[in-house]
Each structure stands twice: as C-alpha cells, then as structure tokens.
C-alpha cells in the first residue's frame, strides 16, 4: 500500500501533509512502489513548500539525505561527504534511473553539478530508463545555462540523442533559449541532425533563435 503522504503531494495539499507529519514523522521516509522517496516526489511535482516540510521531518528524525536527494536539493556538503565515503555513488542510478549528475542538472544546481563533475561523475551517461536523457538534456530542460556551460566544458557529448532522437540543441531551440543555443553551437552542435520524426532544431525553433540556426 502506498503511504498517504504521496496523496498529499499529488494533491499539493500542504495542510494535510503537515497534519500527517505532525501525527507521525515516519511518513517522511516513505517510498513509493518504485522506490522513489517522498522528498523526491515533492521535488518532481514542483512542490518546494511540501519538500521543505518533508525535509524538516527528516532532519527532526535524524534521517540523512541520500545521494539523489542531496543532488536534487543542491546540498553540496552532504554530496561531498557521500562521494568521499563511496565514490561509486557518482555512477549509481536512482530507483527511476537517474544519476546524481542528472538530478543536480535537472534542478539547476550549478555548484552541486560542479562538485560531481570535479569528482569524476560520468558526464555523458544516458539515464537507465526509456528517456535515455543525458545530464546535458536535463540541464537544457531546466534552462540552467550555468550547468550547461559546466557540462560542455567537462566534455559532454553535445549531439547526444535522448529518446525520440532529440538533441540538446533541439530542446533549447524549442524553448527559444538563445543563450543556451549559442553555447551549444559554440560547442559544435550539429544543426542538421533530425529527430526520429524528421525534425531539425530549426524546424522546432522559437522565432527568437531561428537566426542562429542558419
């Protein structure tokens, strides 16, 4: 049976979640049937206030963040401790198939991403799930220009394709994200690549970036 905290998160019901945790803080350590924690679920649902409530309950219970939670929140000190204790966490994948670098990138945490890269996190590793996203795709999805720059400087494959044949350039063009499009082009992104359905970055581009794509 799924813990009721997940119903609170999906509903965005802060009052119900607070009442649940006040009655029993152990709800904060719950995981769904896939093994994804309540904290990660709140972050995925873009519910920062609920995530903060869960984090407070974890702290009050003396429960430390795991590698993936620390990366998703951007807790650099905790990440450093975990990596120094066991460097294998750099290439480990979460219950839903993401590395710590995927998560730090997706949530736009530049300092956390830099730490993971400096410690040897795989920069061009596809997610172990059908999305096949690389950290670069995650950072572009987050429109996190600073993280994109760090990944490219660390040797990220600029033309790597995720599920559907989508490249980072295609996503940035679709977002109309001029700064990131410029970075990707400077790193050698191929404007002629096509997605599985035959579209190029220029086909997908917002008007504000079309001129960059030739």
Q: Structural class, judged by helices and strands? A: mainly alpha
Count every beta strand, where a strand is a DSSP E run of 2 or more residues.
0
Largest sheet: none
Q: What is the H-and-E element order?
A: HHHHHHHHHHHHHH
- The tally of helices reads 14
Task: Compute the CA-based radius of gyration.
Answer: 19 Å
Q: What are the segments in which pLDDT stays under 50 over at least 5 consecutive residues?
A: none
Distance between the termini: 54 Å
Average pLDDT, rounded to a whole number, is 97
Structure description:
The protein has about 210 residues and is mainly alpha-helical. It is built from 14 helices and no strands. The longest helix has 13 residues, at about 50-60.
Write out key terms for the chains shown.
mainly alpha, 14 helices
Tell me briefly what this model is.
The protein is mostly helical and 214 residues long. It is built from 14 helices and no strands.
Secondary structure topology:
Elements lengths: L4 H7 L2 H10 L14 H7 L3 H13 L6 H7 L2 H10 L14 H7 L3 H9 L16 H7 L3 H9 L14 H8 L2 H9 L14 H4 L2 H4 L4
Helix pairs in contact: 2-4, 3-4, 5-7, 6-8, 7-8, 7-9, 8-10, 9-10, 9-11, 10-12, 11-12
């Amino acid at each position: 049976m799924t813990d009721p905290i997940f119903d609170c998160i999906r509903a965005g019901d802060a009052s119900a979640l607070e009442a649940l945790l006040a009655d029993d803080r152990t709800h904060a350590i719950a995981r769904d049937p896939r093994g994804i924690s309540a904290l990660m679920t709140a972050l995925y649902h873009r519910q920062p206030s609920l995530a903060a409530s869960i984090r407070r309950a974890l702290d009050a219970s003396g429960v430390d963040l795991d590698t993936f939670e620390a990366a998703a929140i951007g807790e650099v000190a905790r990440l450093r401790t975990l990596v120094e204790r066991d460097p294998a966490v750099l290439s480990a994948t979460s219950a839903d198939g993401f590395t710590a670098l995927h998560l730090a990138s997706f949530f736009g945490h530049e300092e956390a991403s830099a730490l993971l890269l400096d410690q040897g996190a795989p920069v061009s590793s596809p997610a172990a799930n059908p999305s096949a996203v690389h950290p670069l795709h995650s950072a572009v999805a987050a429109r996190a220009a600073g993280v994109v720059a760090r990944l490219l400087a660390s040797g990220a494959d600029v033309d790597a394709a995720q599920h559907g044949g989508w490249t980072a350039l295609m996503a940035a063009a679709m977002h109309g994200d001029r700064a990131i499009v410029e970075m990707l082009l400077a790193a050698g992104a191929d404007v002629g690549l096509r997605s599985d359905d035959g579209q190029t970055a220029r086909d997908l581009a917002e008007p504000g970036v079309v001129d960059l794509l030739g």
